């Protein structure tokens, strides 16, 4: 299963970025093989609609799980439609986030928890 | 003549000046283009005779024709559209109504419907023709409302346009419709800071500017020094008068609270006409 983590820099040891759509990088981790890919988040410079854009990127990358700190209403709606489960985690590195998710320590978000346009 | 009353800074007295100019000139249309907070009616007390909705076209989907290819979402620079497997989503408030999605759709599954974003109201205050635009609460794009109000510009009479504050797209849209922009400011560091932004913005669209200093007996001389440096005429100075503030608090126009100012406001019309001519020469 592919897990997407919002990050401030590249690679598995990157610190997480609390923002979803405005995080500079999305790290895609394969939970079975441990394969790690880094993608620059194009939505980071969007004037408006960063949430809808970033959510579609997550869907296209084939991620089934998103680990991030906060998620706005439009992003959450698109992610839900795409069948992406969102789990909240406030900080640490990408590898720590994935480990916490694997251990079942993270809570799945049932609703958006940030206002539209929230960018930390 | 079309004059836009603008300012970089909010609260300098744009509406106070716009309404009292309208009350001092003959044959005037007043357009309240401050569509995110129109309030000229509070000083002019117009009778509203009719209103019209402002709408923008937004995309809708014939689901049976959609193959979820995502071409529309890829095209949309506003990211108002999202397509994920088996689901097409539109976020109306992000849509800039460009119509591009329906053009790029290979299966012609997208059509457009009109969506209301605001209202334009028409009326009179005495002999003044009054038009006011108002953006609905929660809407993000004021320009279509401003465009509809500006359709009421009538070349046969003087048009006074109350502009939105700031130096953003809304203010520029209004300034572009005017022959001259009267910048209302106050002689404080705050007034000067935002006046500078407004002057720079107007240079970009090549519109002549004139400065009206409100509450002119306060603050510092920096606004005057700046105006001299920039070659912008200071066409009128209005002192801070308690009677005006008291009248304002009771929805009474400046020119009624301080009748002595009427002749200055009348004379301002010729001064502005001269400013336009000098700039054109």
Quick one: overall form of chain B? elongated
Sheet with most strands of chain B: 9 strands, mixed
Distance between termini of chain B? 17 Å
Low-pLDDT stretches of chain B are none
Level-2 CATH architecture of the largest domain in chain B: 3-Layer(aba) Sandwich
Tally of strands of chain B: 11
Question: H/E series of chain B, N to C?
Answer: EHEHEHEEHEEHEHEHEHEHHH
- Please list the strands of the largest sheet of chain A in the order they lie side by side: 3-2-1-4-5-6
Largest sheet of chain A: 6 strands, mixed
Q: At CATH's second level, what is the architecture of chain A? A: 2-Layer Sandwich
Class of chain A, according to the CATH hierarchy?
Alpha Beta
**SSE order of chain A, as H and E?**
EEEHEHEHE
- In total, the number of domains of chain B comes to 2
User: C-alpha Rg of chain B, in Å?
Assistant: 22 Å
SS class of chain A = alpha/beta
Count of runs of 4 or more consecutive helical residues of chain B: 11
Q: CATH superfamily name of the largest domain in chain B?
A: P-loop containing nucleotide triphosphate hydrolases
Regarding quaternary structure, what we see is heterodimer
Instruction: State the end-to-end CA separation of chain A.
Output: 29 Å
Structure description:
The complex is a heterodimer of chains A (120) and B (281). Chain A has 120 residues and is of the alpha/beta class. Chain A is built from three helices and six strands; from the N terminus they run E-E-E-H-E-H-E-H-E. Chain A has helices at 50-60, 73-81, 94-102, and strands spanning 2-7, 25-30, 36-40, 65-68, 85-88, 107-108. In chain A, strands 3-2-1-4-5-6 form a six-stranded mixed sheet, sandwiched between helices. Chain A starts with a strand and ends in a 12-residue tail after the last strand. The mean pLDDT of chain A is 91. Chain B folds into two domains: 2-54 and 118-280, P-loop containing nucleotide triphosphate hydrolases (Rossmann fold, 3-Layer(aba) Sandwich), CATH 3.40.50; 55-116, Alpha-Beta Plaits. Chain B has helices spanning 14-24, 41-44, 71-75, 100-104, 143-150, 169-176, 189-205, 222-230, 242-249, 254-257, 262-280, and strands at residues 2-6, 28-32, 47-61, 81-84, 87-90, 110-125, 128-135, 158-162, 180-185, 209-214, 234-238. At the A-B interface, helix 1 and helix 2 of A face strand 4 of B.
């Amino acid at each position: 299963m592919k897990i997407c983590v919002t990050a401030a820099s590249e690679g598995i040891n990157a610190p997480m970025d609390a923002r979803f759509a405005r995080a500079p990088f999305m790290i895609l981790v394969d939970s079975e093989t441990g394969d790690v890919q880094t993608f620059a988040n194009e939505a980071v410079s969007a004037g408006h609609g960063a949430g809808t854009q970033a959510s579609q990127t997550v869907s296209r990358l084939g991620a089934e799980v998103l680990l991030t700190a906060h998620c706005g209403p439009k992003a959450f709606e698109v992610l839900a439609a795409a069948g992406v489960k969102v789990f909240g985690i406030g900080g640490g590195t990408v590898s720590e986030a994935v480990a916490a998710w694997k251990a079942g320590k993270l809570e799945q978000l049932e609703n958006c928890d940030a206002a539209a346009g929230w960018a930390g | 003549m079309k004059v836009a009353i603008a300012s970089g800074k909010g609260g300098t007295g744009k509406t106070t000046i716009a309404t009292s100019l309208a009350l001092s000139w003959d044959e005037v249309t007043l357009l309240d283009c401050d569509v995110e907070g129109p309030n000229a009616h509070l000083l002019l007390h117009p009778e509203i005779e009719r209103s019209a909705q402002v709408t923008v076209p937004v995309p809708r989907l014939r689901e049976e024709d959609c193959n979820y290819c995502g071409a529309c979402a890829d095209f949309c620079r506003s990211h108002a559209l999202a397509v994920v497997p088996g689901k097409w989503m539109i976020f109306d408030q992000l849509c800039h109504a460009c119509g591009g999605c329906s053009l790029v759709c290979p299966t012609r599954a997208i059509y457009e419907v009109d969506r209301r974003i605001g209202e334009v109201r028409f009326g009179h205050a005495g002999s003044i023709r009054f038009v006011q635009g108002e953006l609905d609460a929660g809407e993000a794009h004021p320009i279509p409302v401003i465009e509809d109000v500006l359709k009421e510009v009538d070349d046969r009479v003087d048009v006074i346009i109350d502009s939105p504050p700031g130096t953003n797209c809304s203010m520029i849209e209004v300034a572009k419709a005017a022959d001259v922009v009267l910048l209302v400011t106050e002689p404080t560091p705050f007034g000067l800071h935002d006046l500078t932004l407004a002057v720079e913005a107007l240079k970009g669209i090549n519109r002549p500017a004139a400065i009206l200093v409100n509450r002119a007996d306060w603050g510092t001389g920096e606004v005057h020094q700046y105006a001299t440096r920039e070659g912008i005429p200071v066409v009128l100075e209005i002192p801070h008068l308690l009677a005006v503030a008291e009248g304002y608090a009771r929805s009474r126009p400046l020119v009624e609270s301080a009748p002595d100012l009427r002749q200055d406001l009348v004379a301002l019309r010729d001064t502005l006409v001269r400013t336009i001519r000098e700039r054109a020469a």
